[in-house]
Write a structure and sequence with these properties.
alpha+beta, Beta-lactamase, globular, 12 strands, 19% strand, eight-stranded antiparallel beta sheet
């Protein structure tokens, strides 16, 4: 049974508990911290978008189409569908001679409520460009178009169906996941993600290893090591693209730059790379609560980076307020998370 990582207080009493598992490893696979069952496969979902974007850079497609930091950062994003996100994804497609119809991620309304309300007030409708995965999918289309050029094929036709597991683009993405995690994903449990690409259930230990490797380059091919570094740098230079206004990932990377790359995934998953420490982090909240996953990730970053600032503490000890703005409680990490900074490999 996994330990409780986050408690929810109402007043001074514990109202709810969020159990989960946490793995922190270095690029050699040595375990720094293991809480709970870190070998049970979990679906990382959007937490691995950095890894899924490796072929975009490693293949040379990013250079071929002269992608900017903003566009590379968006390729790693679960964005809020704000105007800058939409325009950036549209700009990538326009450079390819394509439009939103090339995206196979599905239509999704913006995640940021003021943006959604403004669109409705103007009588606008959502498109695939508003999908939180539109940057990742624009990157996939770039890879497909580069492949088409090399094969002498028509780009739009070659890209069609790129979300299928047997499409050349997805085969490259799967290969990148296998190379970084050390797991043959073709043998792993498989599902379909919210954006329609394959998603694989992988152990937290393997996911943490992948992010340690992505943060250091150790254990990766030269092409993937360079790609991981370039993507991390892009996210550090353009962190708004990774999430958006008031989003945890954006705010943390604005504050810490290249010291910390972190990425949320659906159903309470978080992954992170801490290059200066040579560590990768992967955690899963059992009940899938996103706020608990953010609180746990903030607590981990606080302890590992020995950070005493207000930003991370504001998430790890998130205050809870009612509709009248009254403080009614808070989240707090358990003792296990607060001891991480003193742990040793």
């Amino acid at each position: 049974m996994n330990p409780v990582l986050i408690e929810v207080l109402r007043g001074s009493a514990v109202e709810s508990c969020h159990a989960g598992a946490l793995a922190i490893v270095d690029a050699s696979g040595a375990v720094h911290t293991a809480l709970g069952d870190v070998d049970r496969p979990v679906f990382p979902r959007s937490a691995v978008k950095l890894l899924q974007a490796l072929p975009l850079v490693a293949s040379g497609a990013a250079d071929t189409f002269q992608l900017t930091d903003e566009e590379l950062s968006l390729a790693c994003a679960s964005h809020s569908g704000e105007p800058a996100h939409v325009a950036t994804a549209a700009g990538v497609l326009a450079r390819l001679g394509l439009d939103a119809s090339a995206l196979e991620c599905g239509t999704q309304w913006p995640g940021r409520e003021p943006v959604l309300r403004a669109m409705v007030a103007r009588g606008e409708v959502a498109t695939p460009l508003h999908n939180n995965c539109s940057g990742k999918h624009s990157g996939f289309v770039c890879v497909a178009c580069a492949m088409a050029r090399n094969a002498g094929a028509e780009p739009a036709a070659f890209a069609r169906g790129y979300v299928a597991a047997d499409h050349p683009v997805m085969r490259e993405v799967s290969a990148a996941l296998s190379a970084t995690t050390g797991v043959d994903v073709e043998r792993a449990p498989r599902g379909i993600d919210g954006c329609s690409i394959p998603t694989f259930a992988l152990p937290l230990r393997a996911l943490a290893l992948a992010f340690a490797r992505a943060g250091t380059g150790q254990g990766l091919s030269d092409a993937n090591a360079r790609a991981a570094r370039r993507l991390r740098q892009a996210a550090a230079r353009a962190p708004f693209m990774v999430g958006g206004t008031d989003r945890f990932d954006t705010r943390v990377m604005q504050a810490f730059g290249e010291r910390l790359f972190c990425k949320i995934g659906a159903e309470g998953v978080y992954c992170a790379a801490l290059p200066e420490l040579g560590l990768g982090v992967a955690l899963k909240i059992d009940d899938g609560a996103a706020r608990a996953a953010e609180a746990a990730m903030a607590a981990v970053a606080q302890e590992l980076l020995r950070d005493e600032g207000a930003l991370l503490r504001g998430y790890s000890h998130l205050p809870l307020r009612n509709w009248n703005g009254l403080d009614v409680g808070s989240l707090r990490p358990t003792a296990a998370l607060q001891a991480l900074g003193h742990a040793r490999p």
